Amino acid sequence: MTSKKIIREKGSNNWYKTKKKLAKVHEKIANIRLDFLHKFSTKLIEENQLIAVETLEVKNMLKNSNLAKSISDVCWSKFIELLTYKAKWYGRDLIKIDTFFASSQLCNNCGYKNKEVKDLKIRNWKCPECGKVHDRDINASKNILDEGLKIQKAS
């Protein structure tokens, strides 16, 4: 089986055809991602009265070469933007937790602050005060929700 080799010199017709095909593929991927974000944000807003999110410095996170592609692929900023306008539209509360809130470092059981957990390699840790074992992300999400509820009560 032989395949025909297409020569693509910059500026040639084949180069422009390939460039157009590639642009269509990228546009389709972007549309699929945006559709998912719209559907997921609508589902979250419809199912919950309060949504608490951590304000993340996405630009700073993109400086980490190991995570940059994954972070930019999920469109966090766009997702928060969609949640914000839909929360207002549906009359829900969207509470943004400060960037410097130590969500993954605090034990959600007793409140102990473990500074060693700043290292992203540590995925699970045991609280020296109460002995509870925490998954970093689940613990952070519980702490963010608790902080969001505190802020909601205060306002």
Automatic annotation (TrEMBL):
Protein name listed in UniProt: Transposase, IS605 OrfB family, central region
Lineage: Bacteria, Bacillati, Bacillota, Clostridia, Halanaerobiales
Keyword DNA-binding tagged: yes
Keyword Calcium: no
Listed Pfam families: Cas12f1-like_TNB, OrfB_IS605
Organism, as annotated: Halanaerobium congolense
Keywords attached to this entry: DNA recombination, DNA-binding, Transposition
UniProt domain Cas12f1-like TNB: residue ranges: 76-144
Protein family (similarity comment): In the C-terminal section; belongs to the transposase 35 family. In the N-terminal section; belongs to the transposase 2 family.
InterPro entries (alphabetical): Cas12f1-like_TNB, RNA-guided_DNA_endo/Transpos, Transposase
Domain Probable transposase IS891/IS1136/IS1341: 9-64
